[in-house]
Amino acid sequence: MKRLAILGGGSWGTALAVVLAPRFEKVRLWFHEPEVAATAARTRENSIFLPDILLAANIEPDSRLEYVLREADIVLGVMPSHAARAVYEAAQPHVPPGTPIVSATKGLDSSTLLRMSEVIEEVFGAAVPVGVISGPSFAREVANGKPTALVCGSRDAKLVAAIQERFSGNTLRVYGSPDPVGVELGGALKNVIAIAAGICDGLDLGHNAVAALITRGLAEISRLAVACGARSETLAGLAGMGDLVLTCTGDMSRNRQVGLKLASGALLDSILASTASVAEGVRTAALAMQLAERHGVDMPITAEMQAIMKRERAPQEAISRLMSRALRDELPGGRNST
Question: What's the pTM?
């Protein structure tokens, strides 16, 4: 693996290009917008999504999919979830046969509720090696060389080992997992809980409330993930609890920022229009509710967040509804334990 193709020139894709550049001879970074790619190539900086971070000499920004994918030894998908299927379909004719594809996108396909790895398998066929990467990781900290641990999930043990060996270094440590379902769903669903955490902080509800929210948020994420075939222990790891804590408490969390602004009375449309970055939790909330209904899983926090974003509920009313739910046992198997 000498040549890495990264599909997605946002903050996360750029950060991964920066941290992985020392491990590859060539890193080609695909941008959707030709003008943004041209500017990044000229200035050696992604001034829109990750300013003030230098792109190494072996990072090559470009907007031509066929060029970025030419002779790639591995493809890393880091595009927003709503664009993933279209990008993969456009990329498919240009990906060398048998090339591993790894998804670092944290979201679900809006038309099918499929995970990103399932979208890849639909587009490229089941024979293509597919993996997923997730975990607690703010893009700027990764790009600045702050210590970060991620997890790579795949049913292909050889691919997991190869990604661990090639991606790990002095500032990035990659653990392995045979559970891509848990890794992906943990990374996608935690974004919704982060919006709720931002609302709690915006309403000044205190540390107790946020701690309870994180804990009960993990419980409903785990219920849905396990119903979809994940292993419960995966949700106690980096892609579950680790990423959830980071996204719910860190000021760089886009989803938490959405919650803070919702608590202040801002309208969702204006919040989303004010930034070029994507807050995946906004879209994921509705998709998670559809997935939960399909599997008969109760997700009260996610349901209230969806109601707030649809302007069916005020933030304070949603909190009151969560606090006044019927009393239950905490652990699974007890009385009304959901």
Answer: 0.94
